[in-house]
Amino acid sequence: MPRRALRLGVAGPVGTGKSSLIATVCRNMAAELEIGVVTNDIYTDEDARFLRASGVLSAARIRAVETGACPHTAIRDDITMNLIAVEDMERDVGPLDLVLVESGGDNLTATFSPGLVDAQVFVLDVAGGGDVVRKGGPGIARADLLAVNKVDLAPYVDVDVDRMVAEGAAARGGAPVLALSRHRPETVDELCAWIRRLAGDHAAGRHTPTDPGAPAHHHHAHVRAT
Amino acid sequence: MTARAALLLFADGRLPAGGYAHSGGLEESVRTGRVRDAQSLESFLEGRARTVGLVLAAFAARSCRAARDPDPLPELEVLDAELDARTPSPAQRETSRQLGRQLHRLLTGMAHHPLLERLPRAPHQPLVLGAACGLYGLRPLDAALAALHESVTGPAVAAVRLMSIDPFRTHAALARIAPSLDRLAERALEHCDGSPHDMPAAAAPLLDVVAEVHATRSERLFAS
């Protein structure tokens, strides 16, 4: 099988810090991984411009997809534009190790298609309220990683981070939840370690993608029809 | 016996080939006030069908017929250049090729198609649509209808996001112009044979202008 980059989706509501998370990953991992980014904007190419302006990657490694006001569609129902953007970038500047696909900020129900990404991070932030985790949804419940971002702001918005993280872990059956702030280097290190492990697993052929959009499977051999 | 259900597949707005990101010039036409209500929307749609739509339909129909030839590639290449010559706006040419590439990516992802795999990287959309219709057993008339249908449903669906309009009224407009789409599809068929240099060149200069202006906007809902 030809080697291609790990494709990692980053989804979550508007303003939770998806672009910032991607810029942080690029800044901290560009020395060890060849990285490219595809952004999905709603009205403008603001996210792509933000990343270009941050100078963390060369312009050729940042591509914007226009989603016709349907960010949800572009990552799930009709992934063709994103798929072409990812494939073009790998062809033009590859080989790459990691392609980050940033979803246009949407709602709690948007998840990436398994046809587009190998794994996905769902991003929430404390400023959106401590109760968002309890509202659930496929991304919160079943994304490969749930990032609770901007935890440095928690005291100002009356959110108990430990509780938010614990509720996240409970909603996810123990799957990873990361309290994150780009102002707290130890949390950024944790994020990078998670991605490093995933990229290693992908490169070694050990990573099995799971789709948060599909209902969770419960294996009850004793009730399975024969 | 000819295929039928495949036509519905290709004409379906849910076809995952990225068409939903385009308004066919409607966004800029709304912004400049040329389209502002149900009446002007219907005129826009009918005008689009009779000009750009007819040209696209003729190219789709001819590509469909060509796809059944033993070696359709030379003719498809000529048609591609002919459609370039009929698309003065660089932004529209790029959109057409982008949509063609997306449809091509979808079709080659769905199944192995030796002909489609030999097409150049980003053919104009009506050529891919027409060739696909041919490969799935559809007739040139079907390809023409699909191209015309797409030329008006894309903007009509975009209209409900761009204007203050009830979706029932946009579909009422589509239903009213349906008979003229049937007539235009028949006219498109007249160009399936003869010299490809004689393909129709019905133009809508304002659509070319709005496509160019739209491409310079930094804030927009739709890619075109």
List the helices and strands and how they pair.
The complex is a heterodimer of chains A (about 230) and B (about 220).
Chain A: E1 6-11, H1 18-29, E2 35-41, H2 46-54, E3 62-66, H3 71-75, H4 80-93, E4 98-102, E5 119-125, H5 132-135, H6 138-142, E6 145-149, H7 161-171, E7 177-179, H8 185-203
Chain B: H1 5-11, H2 26-31, H3 38-66, H4 73-85, H5 90-110, H6 114-118, H7 125-135, H8 140-162, H9 167-189, H10 205-216
Helix pairs in contact in B: 1-8, 3-4, 3-7, 3-8, 3-9, 5-7, 7-8, 8-9
Share of helix of chain B, binned: 55-70%
Reported by name, the CATH topology of chain B is: Urease accessory protein UreF
Number of E-type strands of chain B = 0
How many domains make up the 3D coordinates of chain A?
Answer: 1
Assembly state: heterodimer
Overall form of chain A: globular
CATH C-level label of chain A = Alpha Beta
Span of the ends, CA to CA of chain B: 38 Å
Structural class based on helices, strands and sheet pairing of chain B: mainly alpha
Largest interface (CB within 8 Å) is between: A-B, 18 and 20 residues
What's the rounded overall pLDDT mean of chain A?
91
Main location (chain B): cytoplasm
Keywords (chain B): Chaperone, Cytoplasm, Nickel insertion
Function (chain B): Required for maturation of urease via the functional incorporation of the urease nickel metallocenter.
Subcellular location (chain B): Cytoplasm
Describe the structure.
The complex is a heterodimer of chains A (226) and B (224). Chain A is of the alpha/beta class. Chain A has one domain: 3-Layer(aba) Sandwich (Rossmann fold). Chain A contains 8 helices and 7 strands; from the N terminus they run E-H-E-H-E-H-H-E-E-H-H-E-H-E-H. Chain A has a 7-stranded parallel β-sheet, sandwiched between helices. Chain B has 224 residues and is mostly helical. Chain B starts with a helix and ends in an 8-residue tail after the last helix. The A-B interface holds A 42-45, 66-70, 73-74, 77-81, 83-84 and B 14, 16-18, 20-23, 101-102, 105-106, 158, 161, 218-223. Chain B: UreD, UreF and UreG form a complex that acts as a GTP-hydrolysis-dependent molecular chaperone, activating the urease apoprotein by helping to assemble the nickel containing metallocenter of UreC. The UreE protein probably delivers the nickel. Chain B: Required for maturation of urease via the functional incorporation of the urease nickel metallocenter.
